[in-house]
Design brief:
Transmembrane segments: 64-85, 92-110, 122-143
Distance between the termini: 49 Å
Shape: globular
Strand order of the largest sheet: 1-2
Number of domains: 1
Radius of gyration: 16 Å
Largest sheet: 2 strands, antiparallel
Number of strands: 2
Mean pLDDT: 94
Structural class: mainly alpha
Low-confidence stretches: none
Keywords: Membrane, Transmembrane, Transmembrane helix
Length: 153
């Protein structure tokens, strides 16, 4: 629990301190999307298929902290520094480094006993993280299209 609470404080401080490159509305949209994506992923993989979980099987309040604080803050930092105007190679490298960060954080979470695997493997996470990270890009593209379109009407 100490690692989780320490992470919550660090993630919030980092998110508040970074220079913001995205519009405020985009940052909020990214944070909400990250939260929803986290809940959907956890409901399916944790509560339905029991492949992993937080603390112990079932729902506990501290298990909500990753979805309501860690996922949105990490999503904001990921998207805020994403190299939108760089080459595909730089975008893939950036995603690779974030995948390594996510895997490292997952490992520390398992070691600290606030997260557990129940049939889930790290290689599955290594495949899932890039997909989940790039879903943020798709979401932001749709959000930008929608807000641009609605401002034209």
């Amino acid at each position: 629990m100490i690692f989780l609470l320490f992470s919550v404080v660090i993630f919030i401080l980092v998110t508040l301190r970074i220079p913001k490159k995205l519009e405020r509305s985009e940052l909020i949209a990214v944070a909400y999307f990250s939260t929803i994506l986290g809940f959907v992923t956890d409901i399916i993989l944790d509560l339905k298929y029991h492949l992993y979980g937080y603390f112990e099987p079932g729902v506990q309040f501290p298990g909500f902290l990753p979805a309501i604080i860690l996922f949105p803050t990490a999503g904001v930092v990921f998207m805020n520094f994403f190299p939108f105007m760089k080459s595909l190679a730089k975008k893939l490298l950036y995603t690779f480094y974030w995948t390594l960060f996510c895997l490292g954080y997952e490992f520390l979470s398992v070691e600290s006993d606030y997260f557990y695997h129940n049939g889930w493997k790290y290689w599955q996470s290594a495949l899932a993280y890039p997909f989940l990270l790039w879903l943020h890009l798709v979401h932001l593209k749709i959000f930008r299209w929608y807000t641009k379109k609605s401002s034209q009407t």
